[in-house]
C-alpha cells in the first residue's frame, strides 16, 4: 500500500510551495504594473514652455529668457518681440540678441537690472519692434541670445499673428 503523503508530499511542503508560487505571482504582477515607472522619465522633470513662446537654453548666461515670441503683421514686414528676462543675480546684465540670418539680421539688447524681471509687452514694458527681416506668421525666425559670460545660444523664435485676443494689441502696423 502506498502512502498518499509520500506520493504527494506532506501538507507543509504543499503549503510552502503555494506560498512561494503566490509570492512569485505577486512580484510578477507588481513589476508588470509598475515597471514603466522605473524606466520612464518623469514628465514633471522635463522643462517646457507652457505658453506660445520658447525658453532659451540657460547656457546663454545668467539671465533666464522665457516665453520669447514675435507677433508680426500679416505681410511679415514688422513684428513685436515679447518675452520675460529674469535676472536672479546681484549684478546688472545686458542680453544681446540677433534676429534673422547671422551677420545680416537685426541686433537688439535688453538691460536687466539685478534681481528683477523685464517682461516685454507686460507691466508697462514696451515690446521691441523688429523690422528688416522676414517674419511671416506661422514661421520661425533664427535668433541668437547671450548674456554675461554665457555662451551664444541659437534658437528658432516662433512668429504668431494677432488672431488670439491676447496677442492682438501687439500686432504692429504694416509699413
Which class best fits the helix and strand makeup? Answer: alpha+beta
The arrangement of helices and strands along the chain is HHEEEEEEEE
Large-scale geometry: elongated
Q: Averaged pLDDT, please?
A: 86
* Superfamily (CATH H level) name of the largest domain: PCu(A)C copper chaperone
Instruction: Measure the end-to-end span.
Output: 109 Å
Number of helices: 2
The CATH architecture of the largest domain is Sandwich
- Just give the CATH class of the largest domain: Mainly Beta
| Count of strand segments | 8
What's the alpha carbon Rg, rounded to whole Å? Answer: 30 Å
Count up the domains. 2
Helix content bin = 10-25%
Q: Major β-sheet, in short?
A: 8 strands, mixed
Percent of residues in beta strands: 25-35%
Describe it for me?
- This protein has 175 residues and is α+β, with helices and mostly antiparallel strands.
- The chain has two domains: 36 residues; 113 residues, Immunoglobulin-like.
- Helices cover 19% and strands 34% of the residues.
- It contains two helices and eight strands; from the N terminus they run ααββββββββ.
- Strands 1, 2, 3, 4, 5, 6, 7 and 8 form an eight-stranded mixed sheet that branches.
- β7 and β8 form a beta hairpin.
- The longest helix is centred in the N-terminal third of the chain and has 29 residues.
- It starts with a helix and ends in a 15-residue tail after the last strand.
Amino acid at each position: 500500500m502506498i502512502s498518499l503523503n509520500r506520493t504527494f508530499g506532506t501538507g507543509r511542503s504543499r503549503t510552502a510551495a503555494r506560498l512561494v508560487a503566490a509570492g512569485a505571482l505577486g512580484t510578477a504582477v507588481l513589476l508588470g504594473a509598475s515597471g514603466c515607472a522605473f524606466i520612464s522619465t518623469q514628465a514633471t522633470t522635463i522643462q517646457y514652455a507652457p505658453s506660445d513662446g520658447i525658453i532659451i537654453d540657460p547656457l546663454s548666461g545668467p539671465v533666464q529668457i522665457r516665453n520669447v515670441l514675435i507677433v508680426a503683421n500679416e505681410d511679415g514686414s514688422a513684428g513685436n518681440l515679447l518675452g520675460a528676462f529674469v535676472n536672479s543675480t546681484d549684478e546688472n546684465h545686458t542680453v544681446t540678441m540677433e534676429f534673422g540670418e547671422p551677420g545680416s539680421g537685426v541686433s537688439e539688447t535688453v538691460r536687466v537690472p539685478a534681481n528683477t524681471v523685464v517682461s516685454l509687452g507686460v507691466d508697462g514694458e514696451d515690446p521691441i519692434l523688429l523690422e528688416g527681416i522676414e517674419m511671416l506668421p506661422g514661421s520661425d525666425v533664427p535668433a541668437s541670445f547671450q548674456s554675461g559670460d554665457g555662451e551664444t545660444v541659437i534658437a528658432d523664435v516662433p512668429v504668431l499673428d494677432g488672431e488670439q485676443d491676447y496677442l492682438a494689441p501687439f500686432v504692429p502696423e504694416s509699413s
